[in-house]
Amino acid sequence: MNNSKCHLMLMASGTGSNVQALIDAVNHGQIQAEIVGVISDQPQAAVIQKAQAAGIESFISQPKDYISRKDWEQSILDFCQARSSDLILLAGFMRILSADFLQHYPQQVINIHPSLLPAFPGRQGIKDAYDYGVKITGVTIHYVDDGIDTGPIIAQESLKIDPNWDLAQLESHIHQIEHQLYPATIEKLIQEKLI
Ligand code: GRF
Q: Which helix (H) or strand (E) holds 175?
């Protein structure tokens, strides 16, 4: 990796606003890296259009199209390895990657989660925090292991919840933090790895 730009592979299942933030950060030179692909398990996901609009190769891989989970993961591994991926960034990728997959990329698969882990893991981190009535929530960037939103924490940013906010307002504030924190954290990691 020392003589060339870090290769980022992005994986997402949905809207892709974090993927867009990472694309923008690379295009503006805020991340010294190249995005080598976007992988999704959802053919209709808006993130696919975002990748296409940015001229980034996308790959759709659905478990149902493979005989086994192992074969599905192998298709993703092949796509990542063929593009010499250095870091795999999950951004709303709604499936668990197995320990077998992760051993190919130790400390190289990273996830963003919209709560202060270990509080409120799972699919609805923002809503769960809102419904619980916590006064402070936030965003976590962490290395991925084979659990659900577990794995060593890299960075966190907290957010004080205004009691007048509805859920949509909280979501909007969380996403604003995500779109700053993910690119900044990845750039910091890349710089540290290059030293
Ligand atoms: C984000 O809130 C992220 O933290 C979570 O899933 C959401 C994805 O949103 N893991 P988007 O597709 O990036 O807009």
A: helix 167-194
Angle made by CA atoms 45, 49, 50, in degrees to the nearest 5? 105
Residues of the chain with pLDDT under 70: 1-3, 194-195
CATH number of 181's domain = 3.40.50.170
11 in a known ligand binding site = no
DSSP string, 61-130: --GGGSSSHHHHHHHHHHHHHHTT-SEEEESS--SPPPHHHHTTSTTTEEEEESS-TTSS-STTHHHHHH
Task: Determine the atom of ligand 1 nearest the C-alpha atom of 21.
Answer: 13
Position 104 in a domain: yes
Residue 43: give the domain boundaries.
6-192
108 located within any domain: yes
Catalytic-role residue among 113, 142, 173, 179: 113
- Residue 1 covered by a domain: no
pTM: 0.96
Residue 13 lies in a domain: yes
Strand partners, 173: none
